[in-house]
Amino acid sequence: MPFFGLLFLVLGILLVRKGLKSLSAKKRLIAEMTPVNGTVLSWAKTEDRDADGRISTYHTPTISFTTIAGESREFTSRVAVRFPNPAVGGILKLRYPESDPAQVVIDQAGFRYAGQAMTCICGVIMALAGLITLIAAL
To answer: Whose CB among 49, 59, 85, 136 lies 3.0–4.6 Å from 43's, allowing a Cys bridge?
Structure first.
């Protein structure tokens, strides 16, 4: 049992480290991107049913924006949220690299850093599970 505790502790620490390193790299990348405002065109609704039959609803925005060069663009975010905000017609802050406007991101922490946050959270949970298992084995 101590082996699994140590394994989970080490893997958890590595996951947290990876998440923090990725977060730092993404912050640097976003700081170099061009800021623009985008308009919410629609919110696509997705429902997910868990094993207990509870339904969770998620919303994914489709947004239009105009690049600094005057080119009109439209994209659908890959990140879904529980509550659609702002409403259709509302403004969201965006960022994109001037060399590739297709790589646009929504400039809000929940959208920007969702993957890195989940990696860190999973790492903390794994590390805590490993630590508890090691303490229980003593």
So the answer is: 59
